[in-house]
UniProtKB/TrEMBL annotation:
Protein name: O-methyltransferase involved in polyketide biosynthesis
PANTHER family given in the database record: S-ADENOSYL-L-METHIONINE-DEPENDENT METHYLTRANSFERASE YKTD-RELATED, S-ADENOSYL-L-METHIONINE-DEPENDENT METHYLTRANSFERASES SUPERFAMILY PROTEIN
Domain of life of the source: Bacteria
Keywords: Methyltransferase, Transferase
């Protein structure tokens, strides 16, 4: 499958796919996503250029696990709901979670990414792939606005233009009757120090938007919770983090400016 090409920013979704595949091969997988491993085998791409090691694969998988839990919680609380998976990339979340047929699921990403998804992943009932830039909000008209809606955006906001990102979330609030938004974000310092992120650096991508948690309340979202770096690793999985990285990670959590460089934001509307 060599006919699909990506921009440098878009290629990071292949890096995270590879991280989940490496986790699936680990002795003690955190996410345990065999669909990701199968996808990597089917895509003709030099994944080795990302140089993702065990610690980075662990970080990618553990963040995905946290997002999966939030999606499960929302679906459990709203039997008939809509899930908008923004910047879906090559994430096989809908296959991991296998939501019931009462859930409408939408994977949204650039046309070239959706094209690759269509080549790699099988079709699924009640799951729709929308080929569009998430910030070109005309795509929202394709989604019925009659159910509680969860917007999940993993590894997306930091790549958006700040104005376009705020407009996207404002459009969601105006479109749907109620719901939640769950996303990860960088601080403004994290954006300035983006070249310290090895995956971003190797992909030659550019981070643009550092979010203060309260700023999205200006578009109609109500902040429910903020989890900083310590929330990215499920408690039961700490023991699987390589020893050196575990020591470094715990040490960085004691430094407020580092602990707050990345965060998980949960809002309702």
């Amino acid at each position: 499958m060599s006919g699909v090409r990506f921009t440098e920013d878009q290629s990071t979704n292949l890096a995270t796919l590879y991280g989940r595949a490496l986790d699936a091969r680990a002795e003690h997988p955190v996410l345990g996503d065999p669909t990701a491993e199968d996808a990597v085998r089917r895509i003709d791409y030099d994944f080795g250029k990302f140089k993702i090691g065990p610690a980075e694969a662990f970080g990618i998988a553990s963040r995905g696990k946290v997002f999966d839990r939030v999606v499960r919680e929302f679906i459990a609380a709203h039997e008939e709901c809509t899930v908008l998976h923004l910047g879906a990339g090559m994430d096989s979340r809908v296959y991991r979670l296998d939501p019931p047929p009462t859930v409408r699921w939408y994977d949204v990403d650039f046309p070239d990414v959706i094209d690759l998804r269509g080549q790699v992943y099988p079709g699924r009932a009640n799951t729709t792939m929308i080929p569009a830039s998430v910030t070109d909000t005309a795509w929202l008209e394709q989604v019925p606005a009659d159910r509680p809606t969860l917007v999940v955006a993993e590894g997306l906001t930091m790549y958006l233009d700040p104005g376009a990102g705020r407009a996207l979330f404002r459009s969601v609030v105006e479109r749907f009757p109620s719901g939640e938004v769950f996303t990860d974000a960088y601080s403004k310092l994290g954006i300035r120090l983006q070249k310290t992120n090895s995956v971003v650096r190797r992909a030659k991508a550019t981070l643009r938007w550092g979010i203060d948690p309260e700023e999205l309340e200006e578009v109609g979202l109500t902040l429910v919770s903020v989890q900083y770096a310590d929330g990215f690793v499920p408690e039961e999985d700490w023991r699987y983090l390589p020893t050196l990285q575990r020591v470094f990670y715990r040490g960085s959590l004691r430094i407020p400016v580092l602990r707050k460089m990345g965060k998980l934001l949960r809002y309702r509307f």
